[in-house]
Design brief:
The complex is a heterodimer of chains A (325) and B (331). Chain A is mainly alpha-helical. Chain A is 75% helix and 2% strand. Chain B is mostly helical and 331 residues long. The chains are: A mainly alpha (325), B mainly alpha (331).
Chain lengths: 325, 331
C-alpha cells in the first residue's frame, strides 16, 4: 500500500512542493505567513480554474490554445458592457461572461466534434479570431480602473470568512470537476475516449458529445475567468492574458496529465498549478530577480515531462512483464 | 500510373496549391484595388523584409510537421540566440563574423538539445518544446532583464537591412529563395524527403522498413534550431537591437503558415509549393492590410478563418471528388 502511494506521481509532486516550501521558508520566514499564503492562493486561483477546463480538453487528447484569447475577449466584452451600461446588475454580468465563454468554447467544440478538425488547428485558428475580435470591439482601446464601478472591481476581492470570491469560485470549480471526472458516467467516458477512441466507440460512447463537452465547459470557465481577470487587475486591453494558454497547459503537464490524453488526475493538476504559483511567489520572497521566473518555469516543465515519460515507460514495461508471467 | 498523366481539369483545379494560388491572386487584386501603393515592385520587395525571418523557419517547420512532430520553441530560440549575440557584442565587442557564428551555434545546440530529449528519452515533441518555449526565452530574460542591447557593429546591419549590389532585392529575400530551393529539392527529390513522408504517415512501418526514424527526427530538430539561429541573426541585424521579448508569438504564426500551405498537421502530406505560396500570401496580406490601416491583430481574424478553411476544404473536396468518381463509374 505504502509503496503504491510513494510511486504515484502526485506523491512525488507533493514531496517536491513541500520541500520547496520548507527551503524557501528557511530563507524567508515571511513566506510562511498566513497573509502570503492567501496571496499565493489568490494569485493561482485564476490559473486553477482555467486549468480545470484545459485538463479536460487534454484528457480527450485535445489541446485548447484559445484560452488566453478567450479570457481576453470575454473580459473585454463584459468590461465594455459595464462601462457603457453601468446599470446592469453584477450578477447579470457574471451570467453573461459565462454565456460568452460558453459560446466561444462551443464554437471550438463544434468544429472539433462535428467537422472533425484536429483540436490544435481549431484552437490555433480561434486563438487568432478571438484575439482579433478583442481589438475589433475595443478599437484597440483600454478599459481602465476608473471606468469600472467599485462593485465590478470588488467582485473577485470581496468574500467571506477571509476567503475571497475568486478563491471560492476556484475551489468550487476544482471540487465539482474532481467529482465529475471521477464519479460520473460522462467523466469516465472522457477518460475512456482519451485512452482509446476506437475502443470507446465500439462500447457505445457518444463520441460527438464527449468531444464537444470538454471544449464547451472549458469555454464557460474561461468566460467566468475573463470577467474575474479584468475585475482583479482593473484593466481590460487587447493583450490581456496573452500567452496564458501555454502557462495553463504547462500547469497540466507539470501535474502529470499525459499530453496524449486519457491519463491525469484533478489532484495532480491542482498540485501543478500550486507548484507554478508558489515558484513565482517564492522568487520574489527570496529576492531573486523576477526575470528568472520564466526560465525556472521552463526548467520545471522540462523536468516534469521527462519524469512523466520515464514513469510511463516503466509502467508499460511492468504491464508487459506481468502479461508474460 | 495513368491517372496522373491524364488528370481531368477539375481535379487539377481542386488541388489545395491551386486554390491557394487563386486565393493569393484574389488577395493581390483586392489589395491593389484598395490601395494604389500596393502593386509597386519597390514596396513589395521592401515589405518582404517583414516576413523573411519567419519564412526561413517555416521551411524546417514544414519538415517537422510532415514528420508528425511540432516545435513551439522556435521564437524562444530566436530570443536566446539574439541575447547571446547581444551580450557578446556589448561585453566582448566581437565583430560580425563572430556574431553570426554565435547566433548559429546557439540555435544549433539548443535545437539539438530538443532533438536529443525527444528521441533519446522519448518525450513527446510538443511537451519538450513547450518547456523550451519558457526555458529559452526565460534564459534571455534572466540574462538581459529589462535591458536592451543596441551596440552592434555597423557591418552587422547589412545582413538584415542590406540589398544585393545596386538592386532593390533584399539580401534576406535571396537567402530565403536559396533555402527554399534546397528544401524543395530535399523534400521532393531525395530519400531524406521520402523518409519524412514515410515517418509522418506511419512511423512504426517506417522503422520496420529500415528507416532510422529517430535519427531523422533528431536531425529535423537540430536543423530548425540552426535556422532559428539564422533567423535570429537576420532579425537582430534588421532591428539593430535585442530585447528578451524579441519575436514573441512567432511560433504560432509559423505553424499557421505551414498548415495553411497544405501540410497535414497529422504529418505525411505537404509540398513546398503550397508552403511558399502561403508564406507570401500571409506576408503580403499583412502588408496590404497595413496600407489601409488595419491593425495586425485584426488580421488575425482573417488568418484564423483561412486556417479553418485550409483544413476543411481539402477534406470536403476529396469527398466531392469521390462522389463524382462513383457517379462516373456507375455510368
Amino acid at each position: 500500500m505504502l509503496e503504491k502511494v510513494v510511486k504515484k506521481r502526485e506523491f512525488i509532486l507533493l514531496v517536491s512542493l513541500v520541500s520547496l516550501i520548507i527551503i524557501v521558508g528557511l530563507r524567508s520566514p515571511r513566506f510562511l505567513s498566513m497573509g502570503n499564503f492567501r496571496d499565493i492562493m489568490d494569485d493561482t486561483a485564476l490559473l486553477a480554474m482555467v486549468a480545470m477546463g484545459q485538463f479536460m480538453v487534454i484528457l480527450i487528447a485535445g489541446i485548447d490554445l484559445s484560452v488566453g484569447a478567450g479570457v481576453a475577449l470575454t473580459g473585454m466584452s463584459v468590461a465594455l458592457l459595464h462601462q457603457y451600461h453601468p446599470g446592469i446588475p453584477i450578477f447579470v454580468i457574471v451570467l453573461l461572461s459565462i454565456l460568452i465563454g460558453f459560446l466561444l468554447g462551443s464554437f471550438n467544440g463544434i468544429l472539433v466534434s462535428l467537422l472533425r478538425i484536429p483540436p490544435i488547428i481549431v484552437t490555433l485558428a480561434t486563438m487568432g479570431i478571438y484575439r482579433g475580435f478583442v481589438a475589433l470591439i475595443s478599437g484597440g482601446r483600454w478599459v481602465s480602473a476608473h471606468e469600472m464601478s467599485d462593485a465590478f472591481r470588488n467582485l473577485p476581492r470581496g468574500g467571506f470568512l477571509g476567503v475571497s470570491n475568486l478563491l471560492f469560485v476556484a475551489i468550487l470549480c476544482v471540487i465539482i470537476f474532481g467529482i465529475f471526472l471521477k464519479y460520473t458516467r460522462t467523466g469516465r467516458e472522457i477518460y475512456a475516449v482519451g485512452g482509446n477512441e476506437i475502443a470507446s466507440r465500439y462500447v457505445g460512447i457518444n463520441l460527438k458529445k464527449i468531444k464537444y463537452l470538454p471544449f464547451m465547459i472549458a469555454g464557460s470557465i474561461y468566460g467566468l475567468a475573463g470577467l474575474l481577470w479584468v475585475a482583479r487587475y482593473a484593466s481590460a486591453q487587447s493583450d490581456t492574458a496573452m500567452g496564458f494558454e501555454l502557462v495553463v497547459i504547462a500547469a497540466c503537464v507539470v501535474g502529470g496529465v499525459s499530453i496524449f490524453g486519457g491519463s491525469g488526475t484533478t489532484l495532480g493538476v491542482v498540485l501543478g498549478v500550486l507548484f507554478l504559483g508558489i515558484i513565482n511567489n517564492a522568487l520574489t520572497q527570496i529576492k531573486v530577480s523576477p526575470f528568472w521566473q520564466m526560465a525556472l518555469q521552463g526548467l520545471i516543465i522540462l523536468v516534469a515531462v521527462i519524469v512523466n515519460t520515464v514513469m510511463e515507460k516503466r509502467t508499460q514495461k511492468l504491464v508487459i512483464k506481468r502479461r508474460n508471467l | 500510373m495513368n491517372s496522373t498523366r491524364k488528370m481531368p481539369i477539375w481535379r487539377i483545379l481542386m488541388q489545395w496549391e491551386v486554390i491557394l494560388f487563386f486565393m493569393f491572386v484574389a488577395m493581390i487584386v483586392v489589395n491593389s484595388s484598395l490601395s494604389p501603393y500596393f502593386l509597386d515592385s519597390n514596396n513589395i520587395l521592401r515589405t518582404t523584409f517583414n516576413f523573411m525571418e519567419k519564412a526561413i523557419i517555416v521551411l524546417p517547420m514544414m519538415f517537422i510537421i510532415i514528420c508528425g512532430d511540432i516545435d513551439i520553441s522556435v521564437a524562444g530560440i530566436i530570443a536566446l540566440a539574439s541575447s547571446f549575440m547581444g551580450l557578446a557584442s556589448q561585453h566582448l565587442g566581437v565583430g560580425t563574423p563572430a556574431l553570426i557564428f554565435i547566433g548559429l551555434l546557439t540555435g544549433l545546440s539548443v535545437g539539438a538539445l530538443n532533438g536529443l530529449i525527444i528521441t533519446k528519452i522519448g518525450v513527446p515533441a510538443i511537451a519538450v518544446t513547450l518547456a523550451g518555449f519558457f526555458l529559452f526565452r526565460g534564459i534571455a530574460y534572466a540574462m538581459l532583464g529589462d535591458m536592451a542591447v543596441t551596440t552592434y557593429p555597423k557591418s552587422f546591419a547589412y545582413l538584415g537591412q542590406g540589398y544585393i549590389g545596386n538592386t532593390r532585392v533584399p539580401f534576406e529575400l535571396v537567402v530565403f529563395i536559396i533555402l527554399a530551393i534546397i528544401f524543395g529539392i530535399v523534400l521532393h527529390k531525395t530519400t531524406y524527403g521520402l523518409n519524412l513522408f514515410a515517418i509522418g504517415n506511419n512511423s512504426t512501418a517506417a522503422r520496420f522498413f529500415g528507416i532510422n526514424v529517430n535519427r531523422i527526427r533528431f536531425f529535423n530538430f537540430a536543423l530548425i534550431g540552426l535556422l532559428s539561429g539564422l533567423a535570429s541573426v537576420l532579425l537582430t541585424s534588421r532591428i539593430g537591437s535585442t530585447r528578451p521579448n524579441i519575436a514573441s508569438g512567432w511560433e504560432l504564426e509559423i505553424i499557421v503558415i505551414v498548415v495553411l500551405g497544405g501540410v497535414s498537421i497529422f504529418g505525411g502530406a505537404g509540398n513546398i509549393l503550397g508552403v511558399v505560396i502561403s508564406i507570401f500570401m500571409v506576408g503580403l496580406a499583412r502588408f496590404g492590410m497595413g496600407l489601409i490601416n488595419v491593425p495586425g491583430i485584426v488580421m488575425n481574424i482573417v488568418m484564423g478563418f483561412l486556417l479553418l478553411i485550409a483544413v476543411l476544404l481539402p477534406g470536403s473536396l476529396r469527398e466531392l471528388q469521390s462522389k463524382i468518381l462513383t457517379k462516373q463509374q456507375q455510368r
